[in-house]
Amino acid sequence: MKLQYWFNFKIFGLYLLAFISIASGTLQLDALNTGLMTGDSSHDPDVPHYYQMPLPVLLHIVSGVLFNLLSPLQFSSTIRTKLTWLHRCNGGLMIICALCAGITALLMNELYPAFGGALKYFGVMTFSLAICACVMMGIIRVKQGDIPAHRAWMIRATAVALGPATQRLFFIPAYLILGSIEQWVIGVGIWVGFLVNLAVAEVFIIPKGSKQVTAKQKGAKQDGPGTMVKTASL
C-alpha cells in the first residue's frame, strides 16, 4: 500500500511539473492563433518569425503537450503490468511526440533569429538531440528485452521533455532578483532546466541498478563458489 501511494505521488509530481509546460504551450498556441487569424503580430512583436513560419512552432508545442500528458502514465505499475497494451500504445505515441518535438526544436534553433546567445543555441541543440537519442535507446533496449535499461532511457527522455518547465521555475526568481531576463540568463536557464531534471532522473535510476546488481551477487553467493566461477566465465 505504501508503494502504491508513493508511486501515485510521483505521477502527481510529474503532472504538476508538466502542467507548467502545458499551460505555457496553451498560451503560446492562443497567441499564435490570434496573430494568424488577424494577420497582426503586433501584440507579440518580439517573435514575428513565429507568425511567418508557424508550422514548426505548432508541431513543437502540440507534440510537447501530448508527451507531457502521456509520459506520467508510463510510471503507473498498474498500467505496465495489467494494461500492457495501453502501456505499449502510449509508449509508441510518446516516441513519435518526442522525436517531433526534438526535430522541430532543432529546426527552430537554426531557422529562427537567435536569442539567448551561444549557451542557449548549444543548449537547445544538445538536449534536442538528447531526447531523440534517449527514445531511440529506449526502443533498442526494449527490443533486446532489457526492460530496466529501457525504463532508464525513457525516464531520461521524460526528464529532458520536462526541462522547459524547470527552466520557467528558474526564470521567475531570476527575474525577481535581476529585474529583467538578459540574454545570458536565458542561456543559463536552458542548461539549468535540463541538467537539474537529468540529475533527479539519475537519482531514481541508479538505486534500481544497484539493487539489481546486489540481488545478482546475493544469488551467486547462495548458489556457491562453483556457480560464481561459471557465471564469470560466461
From TrEMBL:
> Which organism's genome codes for this protein?
Planctobacterium marinum
> Transmembrane region positions?
12-29, 49-70, 91-109, 121-142, 154-178, 184-206
Taxonomy, top ranks, is: Bacteria, Pseudomonadati, Pseudomonadota, Gammaproteobacteria, Alteromonadales
Name the Pfam families on file: DUF2306
Report the protein name in the record: Membrane protein
Superkingdom of the organism of origin: Bacteria
Q: Which InterPro entries match?
A: DUF2306_membrane
What keywords are annotated for this sequence in UniProt? Membrane, Transmembrane, Transmembrane helix
